[in-house]
Amino acid sequence: MSSRYDAVIIGGGVIGCFLAYQLTKRGKKVALVEQGELASGASGAAAGMLAADCEHFEHPELKSMARLSRDAFPSVIRELRQLSGIDAGLNERGFLVPARDAQEAEELHAGMLADCSGEWWRPEKLQTAEPALCKALHGAVYRAEETQLLPARLTEALAYSAQSKGAELLLQTKAAEIREINGSVQGVMTSRGLLECEQAVLAGGWQMDQLLQPLGLTLPLEPVKGEIVEVHSESPLLTSTLYARNVYIVPKPGNKLWLGATSYSGDRSSGVRADSVYKLLSAGSEYIPEIRSSQFIRAWSGHRPKTPDGLPYLGGFSGIHGLYAAAGHYRNGVLMSAVSSSILANVMEGIATPGVNLEPFSPDRYQRQREGEMVL
Ligand code: FAD
Ligand code: GLY
After folding, report:
1. Can you tell me whether residue 16 is helix, strand or coil?
2. 128: how many CB neighbours lie within 10 A of its CB?
3. What are the residue ranges spanned by the domains of the chain?
4. Torsion angle of alpha carbons 56, 59, 61, 65, nearest 10°?
5. Which ligand 2 atom is the nearest neighbour of the CA of 261?
6. Which of its termini does the chain have fewer beta carbons within 10 Å around, N or C?
7. Is residue 115 very low, low, confident or very high in pLDDT (cuts 50, 70, 90)?
């Protein structure tokens, strides 16, 4: 373990690992600190959808960033496969947003026209393309550009690719304190000792406030628990991802389907509730009846890191030179990881990203609000 780095990144999820990869590619000396294993937080629990058009975003800028990010993945994944030997399992068969009745069909069709994205598939076309889907569906919007992958594999591929370019991966290592002198970062104290650095990045999911409190800073984040069920069938039941209003069904290699996801705000518990498994399987089998006779493999949970306004924290803290945040990507951290890490790597090098206004994503925004309230 060397003792001086250009940057220490706290968090071995998809955001921290993508940033480690971006910075090492730019020639920086980087250490990545993870308290458990790679992808042991939300990144290992995610469905891996890169759903820039299907998901809802709280800010128009995020939508265009999400599309850029999604479209960067095919080449990133090729690059990572070459460097790490790990294949993140990109599925490019598109997404289907199904209509259960005539009213849903009308709404989806109108939304598709307003959005200028997607293609309307009539019930006959839907049945030909996906014969296991329920015959009573009233059609679907097909979005060819949407993709999905294996998020834990992506995270590992990023970390080991960064390592192949010189990054140090410090697993089972907890960051305990940010060291600063006169408002400038000096290092990160960890369970393995002090890592001296000029820049430190908070990319630890929803648990970053503890590190900031001693510095008098705040980064409010709430966990939103989500659960997913995996089933296996003898033959494939779905090729495209089905993104319905009450459930999504994501086909994975080896004839597996992931059915997700529940959403419980503020729930810090681990494990999976029996009624969540029941609800997800019931909702999924409304669309694919054969799910009832498929084999239950496993179910898991994770915590989406949500900010109060739903926008991520991306950028530097004005109060402490060299301290940055890349956190709070809520439902779309895997999707946003390519663009967010590239933007933050630019910020850390003092480069503006053309066409991107980072003000709404400032990690200082709640600090300013809190200080404003204290003055009043
Ligand atoms: P995390 O993956 O949580 O990583 C943070 C890491 O930091 C953890 O490994 C943790 O152990 C470590 N850490 C924390 N504190 C410290 C410390 N003090 N020292 C050292 N290490 C520390 N997003 C999508 O884009 N598409 C999807 O389809 C999708 N589906 C989802 C489904 C579910 C059920 C859930 C729960 C989430 C889903 N998400 C999805 C959201 C996505 O998982 C998150 O937005 C993303 O993984 C956040 O990544 P992260 O790196 O910020 O956090
Ligand atoms: N983006 C899917 C989820 O968070 O469940």
Report:
1. helix
2. 10
3. 4-86+151-220+308-375, 95-147+223-305
4. -40
5. 5
6. C
7. confident
Cα three-residue angle 285-274-259, rounded to 5 degrees: 35
Residue with tokens 């990054």: 167
Tell me the C-alpha distance between 134 and 164, whole Å.
47
Which atom of ligand 2 lies closest to the CA of 260?
Answer: 5
The alpha carbon of 259 is separated from its chain's Cα centroid by a whole number of angstroms, namely 17
Q: CA-CA distance, 79 to 161, in Å (whole number)?
A: 9
3-state helix, strand, coil in the chain (%, to 5): 35, 25, 35
Its pTM stands at 0.97
42 CA → ligand 1 middle, Å:
3
Cα–Cα nearest to 252, from 90, 86, 32, 109: 90
Query: Does the Cβ of 327 fall within 6 Å of ligand 1?
Result: yes
pLDDT at residue number 367: 84
Helix (H) / strand (E) containing 231: strand 222-232
In whole angstroms, give the CA distance from residue 117 to residue 139.
Answer: 16
Q: Which CATH number fits domain 95-147+223-305: 3.40.220.10, 3.30.9.10, 3.50.50.60, 3.40.50.620?
A: 3.30.9.10
Residue 28 Cα, ligand 1 centroid: separation in angstroms? 24
Pairing relationship of beta strands 184-190 and 30-33 according to DSSP bridges: unpaired
Nearest ligand 1 atom, CA 210:
18
Within 8 A by CB and 6+ apart from 272, the residues are 227, 299, 300, 301
Q: 134-138 long-range contacts, Cβ below 8 Å, gap at least 24?
A: 134/286, 134/287, 134/288, 134/289, 136/100, 137/98, 137/99, 137/100, 137/287, 138/99, 138/100, 138/101, 138/102, 138/104, 138/105
Residue nearest (by alpha carbon) to ligand 2 atom 3:
331
Q: Is 27 exposed, middle or buried (0-12, 13-18, 19+ CB in 10 A)?
A: exposed
- Alpha-carbon distances, residue 278 vs 199, 234, 262, 332 (angstroms): 46, 21, 11, 25
pLDDT tens digits, residue range 251-276? Answer: 999 999 999 999 999 999 999 999 99
Fold assignment, 4-86+151-220+308-375: FAD/NAD(P)-binding domain (3.50.50)
